[in-house]
TrEMBL record:
Keywords: Methyltransferase, Transferase
Residue span, Methyltransferase type domain: 53-139
Transmembrane segments: none
GO biological process entries: methylation
Keyword Kinase (UniProt): no
PANTHER family membership: METHYLTRANSFERASE, METHYLTRANSFERASE TYPE 11 DOMAIN-CONTAINING PROTEIN
Protein name, entry field: SAM-dependent methyltransferase
InterPro entries the record matches: 23S_rRNA_MeTrnsfrase_RlmA, Methyltransf_11, SAM-dependent_MTases_sf
Pfam short name (any one): Methyltransf_11
UniProt-recorded Gene Ontology molecular function terms: S-adenosylmethionine-dependent methyltransferase activity
Top-rank taxon: Bacteria
Length: 253
């Protein structure tokens, strides 16, 4: 028997959203992955350095997938529930977790790290990244690109202005990196697709990825959620376009 709107929404509203593990969505949402394999690239880079920093680690799940940690491995995170989750996961692997509000300056000395990595950072403080990198060190990051999942964003918020749709453009990242004194050695983009198969998957996603629909709550958006549920029931999964880019930049040595 098909589950009702109220059942789907109540289940998703009660689900914990700490950490950066999306396994709750298994079978309910499908996200196409970029072709470059960020976790594999990150793992390869970590294996070749002495000291590394993972910025905005979330619950530490991505970093924990590295095959080997360098002798000095530090991760930062700003959201207290994620700090606790990342500490639980990463400390046994030899990584220290530092609670940091993600506002400059970073709580590290200049030239402290050979490598800085970050998957899906909300903000990127390029001058601070350049400061904490050793000469010859590198920054590797997979980031959310412009207008990502905007079909879903605009379903709730309506049409967004062009400057909002264009934000997080990879060429802007290139210019910002170069302005901070870094040399961009790799920049790749991918346009992918995400399917939401029930309204509960949307509720969970928007509760977890809080910047997509700022201030999202079930109570505030219940009417639109009900419309979305009816649409999925009638037409099948709600499909959105996901954009990602990979950027690697090096500090001159």
């Amino acid at each position: 028997m098909a589950r009702t709107f109220d059942e789907l929404v109540a289940e998703a509203e009660a689900a914990p959203v700490e950490g950066w593990d999306f396994s709750w969505l298994d079978g309910r949402a499908v996200e196409e992955r970029p072709p470059w394999g960020y976790q594999r690239l990150m793992s390869e880079r970590l294996a070749g350095v002495q000291a590394a920093l993972d910025l905005q680690t979330g619950g530490g799940e991505v970093l924990a997938g590295a095959e080997r940690m360098p002798p000095v491995m530090v991760a930062t995170e700003g959201w207290p529930p994620n700090v606790a989750e990342a500490t639980r996961l990463l400390h046994p692997l030899g990584a220290a977790v530092v609670a940091d509000a993600d506002q400059p300056p970073l709580p590290f000395a200049a030239e402290a790290f050979d490598l800085v990595v970050s998957r899906h950072p909300v903000t990127v403080h390029w001058a601070e990244i350049a400061r904490v990198l050793c000469p010859g060190g590198s920054y590797l990051s997979q980031q959310v690109g412009p207008a990502s999942v905007f079909e879903l964003v605009e379903f709730f918020l309506g049409p967004q202005p062009e400057e909002v749709r264009r934000s997080r453009h990879p060429e802007d990242a290139r210019r910002a990196a170069e302005a901070a004194g870094l040399e961009v050695v790799d920049l790749r983009t991918a346009e992918l697709h995400t399917e939401f198969r029930d309204v509960g998957a949307v509720v969970y996603f928007l509760r977890k990825v809080i910047w997509m629909v700022p201030g999202f709550t079930v109570a505030e958006h219940r009417d639109r959620l009900r419309d979305l549920h009816a649409r999925i029931e009638a037409e099948g999964p709600f499909t959105a376009t996901t954009t990602r880019f990979l950027i690697e930049a090096r500090k001159p040595g």
